[in-house]
From TrEMBL, chains A, B:
Protein name: Transcriptional regulator, TetR family
Gene3D superfamilies for this protein: Tetracycline Repressor, domain 2
Species assigned in the record: Shimia haliotis
Top-level division of the source organism's lineage: Bacteria
Residue ranges: DNA binding: 31-50
The HTH tetR-type domain, residue ranges: 8-68
Lineage of origin: Bacteria, Pseudomonadati, Pseudomonadota, Alphaproteobacteria, Rhodobacterales
One GO MF term: DNA binding
Record-annotated membrane-spanning stretches: none
Alphabetized UniProt keyword annotations: DNA-binding
Length: 195, 195
DNA sequence: AGATAAATTGTCAATGATGACAGTAATTAA
DNA sequence: TTAATTACTGTCATCATTGACAATTTATCT
């Protein structure tokens, strides 16, 4: 009887536009006007589908976490075939792929903006924890002789370099910096073999 | 004849309050009201000393770069006495000291917000480059046998971990994460000895 | 065709942020 | 004491952002 609901589809579309704006302008800079323009809809629609500002932020947070988790799962799939530290680096730092930095930029913007709200704070931390878990697990599989603490430390370091790479992308750093960061990650991974 | 100028002193005071607000709320969230409240002055004074919004942002950018450069110089002084990778980590990751994460948070917030303005972009990149230079130089002194490319890659990695540590500070991560990040940096530095 | 429920748009009031400037207070030199 | 210059405050106009809701359109089922 009723017109078919577009709630899921439109919500996704708007949240992705929201994510883009937050990555570019920060949370406070991502006004409803900008989000609406980015999504190609009129502003009142944002409210219709996502509610008021606070609810929009909550929804964005959940969306970022969901996308991040999806990325972690995807990485886990790829890393299952990794046979060396070099394989890991090539998978995580591939440039030919369409890895856009929006996600981690939005993740960071949210982390500084909602870090005082325990529920969102934990959700963001958990999403990062999942990625760290994937990476740590892969390292333990590849280097079973190393301590799990070492695997964990290396995973934290590699993740830091990945995050930093996306952060820097807004400054359009020279290609050499990207190479150096990738090499840094490779060195860190290589240190898993030592001793 | 004239009343003595407080321009330098007040400007510094206001810029530091501005830096604090940008670290906490992002560039767009650091409204003049908030900055004025943080600095303990009335809003019209901001305009009196720093000009309009764009000029305030430019001034903040210069201020952040200046403080960052000062930190790099200070680090250079301390690193001059470092005799091992462990010394470097202890100096850069010391917790007893009053290293507050505001600076790097504001640096990041600015980098995503003004990354499209070549002058500010270059200023921010140069400030990071100075820090990288200090760290790379120290590594070359400590490990003269390693290639300079390797020193550079390790410097990039350690810097990434430092930046990430300050980013995460807003999420109040468990102490174990901090330890793991520090250990990751130490592993990276230790890899300078290999081969 | 008509009923129903959702999608979409138009519009206005309220609040928030910035720009601008007049006006007052304070400090120093002559 | 007075002139000169700066520090500081009060206040208003303007624009941007958000919240809210009425009104319209569209798609589906009976």
């Amino acid at each position: 009887m009723p017109r078919p609901s577009l709630k899921d589809q439109r919500s996704e579309q708007i949240l992705d536009a929201y994510l883009t704006c937050v990555a570019q302008f920060g949370l406070e800079g991502a006004t409803q006007e900008r989000v609406a323009a980015q999504a190609g809809v009129k502003r009142p629609l944002l409210r219709h589908y996502l509610g008021n500002r606070d609810q929009m932020i909550s929804a964005l947070c959940a969306h970022v976490v969901q996308v991040f988790d999806g990325m972690s799962d995807e990485a886990a799939l790829g890393l299952a075939y990794a046979g060396s530290g070099k394989d890991i680096v090539e998978l995580l730092f591939q440039e030919e792929a369409d890895h856009d930095p929006r996600l981690l930029l939005a993740w960071q913007a949210l982390s500084v903006a909602v870090g005082d709200q325990p529920d969102k704070r934990d959700a963001l931390l958990n999403s990062l924890e999942r990625f760290l878990g994937v990476l740590t697990g892969t390292l333990q599989r590849l280097f079973p002789k190393a301590s799990s603490a070492k695997a964990r430390a290396v995973a934290q370091g590699v993740t830091s370099i990945l995050v930093n790479l996306d952060s820097l992308s807004m400054l359009a750093p020279p290609q050499s910096w990207r190479d150096e960061l990738r090499d840094g990650a490779l060195l860190l991974l290589t240190s898993m073999e030592a001793q």
